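thread: overnight batch results

M.L. [08:02]
morning all. the overnight job finished for the chain we discussed friday. pasting input first so we're all looking at the same thing
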Amino acid sequence: MNQQRQQPNILLLFKIIAYLISSWILVHLLSVFGAFLAVAYPLWWLFSPDSTICFMCRSGKEGKKCPFCQETIVKNQTFPKRPLSAVLNGILILSFSLFSIGIVYGESKLLYKLGFPPTPKTVSFIIPTKGQYKLGEVFPMNIEITGIKAPINAVQADLGFDNQRVELMDISTEGSFANIFVQKDINNEAGYARLTGGLANPGFLGEKGLFGTAFFKAKIPGVVKIEFLPTSLVLANDGRGGNVLNQLSSVSYLILPEKVTDEEARSQTMIFNETKVLGKKSEETQMIFYDQKPVLGLETDINSSFKVEKQGFGDILLNVLGYIDSFILTFWTKLFNFENTILLK
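M.L. [08:03]
and the structure it wrote out:
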């Protein structure tokens, strides 16, 4: 008896699930093709009236009056009986289409707040090409980012370097796209440095951007490697603070055994001091909130790599739904922009 009672419940559950899936598919199909179907419906009826369905006749009870056709409903004759009925059916399809687009829009907003789909990881740090420097020479290394497809508003650049061969003199924020800096740490004992900053809404968007400039001093001859550490971050201005950093960079410089001359040393000192003066002027338009906490370099695993985030079936499904909604909304946005462009011409 219990098994017989459970079977109808299971069948009912499957029916509900099938209904929900079918409804979801129908809503998304209408959100894309509904408007086109609404326009094509009266033309379809014009060329083939007997094979066109009047939705009010089909859904109404036999013997009742169809509000569109203004005639008694006959179940074996559920096609529109006159042109106005065909037009009204087209308007009904258009109404459902607009309602479906509204549902897709609401669904996309909900998924977005839940983090689906994630903001694409397209940003990477770039380092100048390889070079060679003399002993005692101070050389700059720009901290730049590229591949910015969406506005960003926060950057954390963590550098690792061979402290036996080079010394990090300073990190300048002169010319940076950021105007708020909360942390600048330099630990030459650990071979570690961090610069953290950003800017307010709407963030920064460009082909590439300069975040800061690190000034190194060559100490011992040989090849020195400087790299961005996996703890680096580039956060999107997407309301969720998604990390869009995709690729880290590293570079090897050759430190020559030849020492800089006294004249070269004086020239470098003048350039370096001038840069610091410019940096001080730049700070007048920047908000600096450097704290005095100990540097975290000793706790940083330089050999670690990006962690691959494992996604469950639920995450994958929600990502797919998010991409589908994004495609539909982008489709209509581009279509209306295209129409506006034609009208402007």
